[in-house]
Amino acid sequence: MKDIHYVGVGEGDVALFVHGVGTSSHLWRNVIAELRDERRCVAIDLPLHGGSASRADLSLPAMAEAVAELCDGLGLDQVDLVGNDTGGAIAQIFAVTHPERLRSLTLTNCDVHTNLPPEDFKPTVELAARGELAPMMAALMGEPELLAASAYGQGYAHIEDPVALVDAFLRPILAKPDGGRDFERLLTLLDAKDLVAIEARLTVLPVPALVVWGTGDAFFDLSWARWLRDTLPGVREIVEIEDGRLFFPDERAAELVPHLRRFWSRL
What we know:
Pfam families: Abhydrolase_1. With about 270 residues, this protein is α/β, with parallel strands linked by helices. It has helices spanning about 30-35, 60-75, 85-95, 120-130, 135-140, 145-150, 160-170, 170-175, 180-190, 195, 200, 220-230, 250, 255-265, and strands spanning about 5-10, 15-20, 40-45, 80-85, 100-110, 210-215, 235-240. The protein starts with 5 loop residues before the first strand and ends with a helix.
């Protein structure tokens, strides 16, 4: 796991956080700030993202195995896994391939079943497939306000510091050798077949699960939260975050954390 970077703070039961495509462990900083005095919080930088190196295989199953590598490297026997965006898809794959490593699973707005990539994200994937996304991102690095608004405008209700957001999310990707091309390659590997293939195993997953969903998300409609509730036997409820957008765990962490505490206290 020498090429995998992570943020780790605190002591106690382990909460492991997984971000999605185009973000990083930075997404979880506000959640971790609230939980660090009561739990051991670990947030991975997925391959290519944040401080982690790129890899030859950037498929979702390979990303899930990178999470398993981190658990092995840190000696994490069981974790409370929390995923957002593509990280939620990775968390689902990790859960069915390594169920013994989970104490619980929490999914916030994320790719589910056939909704990968989501309809509103397909134009970005098409740009990547044509090799046009990386040059566009590189050209906009000198205009972080415009880049943040175009890349993350639908995921946040308000971006307070676009420079910090670009520095945390996109700059580390583009700074790596061939990082832009690898990012394009990653996007073209997003395929619903990886989630459809695990549906049967999700229906028998013996893990307590929580679904927390922002209702103002342009990418992941509330119907997908209901799909998870009806598919995962461990889900008892859907917690709705009114008007929450895709990245509500970042900008509205104070509304997510109490539900995590309540859920974990019942385990």
